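Q: What would this complex look like in 3D?
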Amino acid sequence: MCDLLDTLLKAEKAPLHQPETKLELEPVWDKDLCARCALCYVYCPDAAISRQEDGYFSADTELCKGCGICHRECWFGAISMQEVD
Amino acid sequence: MDKYSLYAGQFLPFAEYIRGHNACKGSGTALAFRHVYKALDMTLKNKTMIAWEKCTVEQSHLSSAGIQPHVLCIPKSNDKNGNMLHVYFDAEKTDKKIDAGVLIKRMPAVAEASGYAYVATAAPSHPFDLVDKIKSAWDADGHAFIHMLCPCPETWGFDPENTVRMARIAVETRIFPLYEIAHGYYQITVDEPNTRPVQDYTKRQERFAKWKAKNVNALQEQVNINFKSLKSKASKGV
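A: Here is my prediction, written as structure tokens for the whole assembly.
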């Protein structure tokens, strides 16, 4: 069970997530398919996805847990989950 | 589908309050939490007003159902009467066997009966609906209650990538209809024209592995009855 609210509210600044295992999959954007609709941004539970200067999106690998919601929710199939080197 | 749906994400505030947390991967609670705070930012236009310290979390055990609720209570700073905004993050974590009593929500009706000025259900799969409801709850004249469905991949037993999809299916099967009750007036905010059968919800989750066809049929019947009564209340406007 995740005690998310406890963690968030007790600590002044919630600690960064430190997964036991390293990130296995990370989202990679295909800029040819991406329509910059920001759906991936809307549905990211970790607030890892942010908008870049060129209007496209990218994920912060420190915050991303590799859940794949962005990959699932992308209407255009622009996001693929690739293995981290 | 109207033309704004595609560019929907750009209409949300881009400010973030959560930078890193210990929630599980693909947690629905974390997603709902994020949107609640975005919505409050939209209303307040003042980031300092939502400090973590001001919030208190009440963790109590609803012993009969074995459910462990997470309730976020935010004092409304725009209200002089000390009214509160209660957001119930319902991840349906139960110690007992899963049954229809856990899936069919009674809390909104209970809250409405006990004098809340604004009661609503919301799910993170419909973020704009969620944001609208939080805003209305904040502006309501009296206590407000939001019942939030938060899919939990770990305890429900599905892939983390399907979190949002699972919440959407819950809405489309009408197990968790999205509606609001403002001063006793019912309104169904998301009324899907093409409903799915309840099997679509149950077959995708491991927690229903022991369910038989009769359980699913019983749930379907109960869902139909509940939605019918909800619809009649909404059409009467009472």
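A: To summarize the key features: Strands of chain A lie at 25-29, 49-51, 57-59, 79-83. Confidence is low (pLDDT under 50) at residues 8-17 of chain A.
Q: Very helpful, thank you.
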